[in-house]
Amino acid sequence: MSTSARYWREIPQRYRLEASKCKGCGAVWFPPRLVCAECGKREFEPLKLADKGKVRTFTVIRVAPSEFCDEAPYAVGIVELDGGVPIQCQIVDCSPEELKIGMPVRIEFRKVKQEGEAGILCYGYKAVPVR
Fold first, then answer.
1. Pair 45, 56 in one domain
2. Which of 5, 80, 97, 101 lies at a C-alpha separation of 20 to 30 Å from 128?
């Protein structure tokens, strides 16, 4: 599947930070799933995730893929949102030395990348330290 097709298919949860909550067992999945990995049910309801959380773990990318080489070094981490749902995202607006496990962050929607020089702009969520 092309990257742009996948990107467009995932826009609802990217722009609304929307997960799916299993109607059978209550497990919350982000990104949303078609089948619950806990109980196997296929009935879900949409759930708006919190836009605040804490850094659970992170790594600093110093040698980046070609499309992100201008941003290196940059941090990518797992943020546990208020409510317990973990998401993976880039952590921005701070130096790698400032990052700490447990650091409070908020989720913002920003440009992630551009496909080609005249390609589509891809937006997504990034974690920003709460100061």
1. no
2. 5
pTM above 0.85, yes or no: no
Overall number of domains in the chain:
2
Q: Which two tokens stand for residue 26?
A: 């209550």
Radius of gyration of the chain (CA): 16
- N-to-C CA span, the chain: 40
Domain housing 13: 1-49
Amino acid at 105: V
44, 55: one domain: no
Long-range pairs of 65-70 with CB within 8 A, sequence gap ≥ 24: 67/113, 68/113
Task: Give residue 66's pLDDT.
Answer: 82
Token pair in block for residue 17: 């930070």
At 9-63, the pLDDT tens digits run 556 666 678 999 999 999 999 888 899 999 999 999 999 999 999 999 999 999 9
Cα dist. 41→38, 45, 84 in Å?
Answer: 8, 12, 21
